[in-house]
Write a structure and sequence with these properties.
This protein is of the alpha/beta class and 326 residues long. It contains eleven helices and eleven strands. The chain has a single domain, classed as 3-Layer(aba) Sandwich (Rossmann fold), CATH 3.40.50. It is globular and about 50 Å long.
């Protein structure tokens, strides 16, 4: 019988506090290794393409659960490895590597260093297929006791991609979705503005001022980090963008109900794109999942990794994964 778990308020603070004592030791450990990896994928047109990922880890890869990270629109793998600003570390990938995970941050097809192809053909289904093929390749080429436990961690549209991939292919043993709602909800942008971007062509660029307004709670984020984020913003394919708008308008089409492994959802209370005010409804969107843990992050806008309180969210993910897969 499925159990739905909601940890919030004082209970959540207590549990995360118990996970924090090892943080100083983890940050003082040896430097994180970073390797560039290439993965061949074959998409619906029959052609082969390359998906690039960056693998972060410390010491041996043996017996390390691997988190496969998928980014949202206007990002690439760099979302998970934001730079240090004013003495604060904003890299989720390095944090988790220091917590004894292997972390594979992907450039989804059409972004970063991965192959760019027809931006109209590169839609949600193709991205989910590419993610599945990366997971399968990772396992097929691994040595014994390496990459045996796979975890999908997706942010925003990346959470939508991993949801489709997990529902269809079932590669991961757990799923973490941040900044994404399968519940019907509104976004404070005129629909006409969103549709206008489709006229840019097969690859779309979202203006920095709109990104800043939608993605950040300014009083809880560093202006230098926000400026860096906008300067390094990636494009999004028109096929992927159109799929995102379609799913937001018809969330009943999202196959979240087909996921059977444990699911964690993180929502920010200052997030204008996927507000934590929908947490109660979102907990019901995974009826077949073995367990569902919905976590609200305070003083956090859409870009979870770019706000001052990011380590609270990271520690919660680490704690949950230790409970369900380690």
């Amino acid at each position: 019988m499925k159990k739905t778990i909601r940890l919030m308020g004082a209970w959540m603070a207590l549990l995360v506090a118990l996970a924090l004592p090892g943080m100083a030791e983890a940050h003082g450990a040896r430097d994180v290794k970073v390797e560039r990896r290439e993965f061949p994928v074959r998409l619906a047109n029959g052609q082969r393409y390359t998906v690039v990922g960056y693998l972060y880890y410390q010491g041996s890869l043996k017996n390390r659960p691997v988190q496969i990270l998928t980014h949202g629109i206007t990002y690439n793998h760099g979302y998970w490895d934001l730079p240090e600003v004013d003495g604060q570390d904003y890299s989720y990938a390095r944090y988790m590597a220091r917590r004894h995970y292997a972390v594979l941050a992907l450039d989804l097809p059409g972004t970063g260093e991965s192959d760019r192809l027809d931006g109209d053909a590169l839609d949600l289904a193709e991205s989910a297929s590419a993610l599945h093929q990366v997971a399968r390749h990772l396992r097929a080429t691994a040595e014994k006791n390496t990459f045996e436990t796979l975890i999908y961690v997706g942010h925003s549209n990346g959470a939508l991609v991993s949801t489709f991939a997990q529902a269809q292919y079932g590669d991961a043993q757990a799923v973490v979705n941040t900044g994404w709602l399968n519940t019907a909800h509104s976004v404070p942008v005129e629909s006409g503005t969103l549709l206008e971007f489709l006229n840019q062509g097969p690859y779309i660029r979202i203006p920095g001022e709109l990104r800043s307004a939608l993605f950040y709670a300014p009083e809880y984020s560093h202006p230098e980090l926000v400026a860096y984020d906008n300067e390094t913003a990636d494009t999004v394919t028109r096929g992927q963008y159109l799929g995102l708008l379609t799913m937001m308008g018809s969330p009943e089409s999202i196959p979240a109900g087909d996921i059977r492994v444990p699911v964690m959802v993180q929502l920010g209370d200052r997030d204008l794109v996927a507000s934590a005010s929908y947490a109660e409804a979102e907990a019901k969107m995974y009826p077949r999942a073995r367990s569902v843990w919905v976590d609200t992050l305070v003083n956090t806008g859409h870009v979870f990794n770019g706000h001052y309180g990011k380590e609270r969210g990271w520690a919660a993910i680490d704690l949950w994964l230790r409970l369900v897969v380690r």
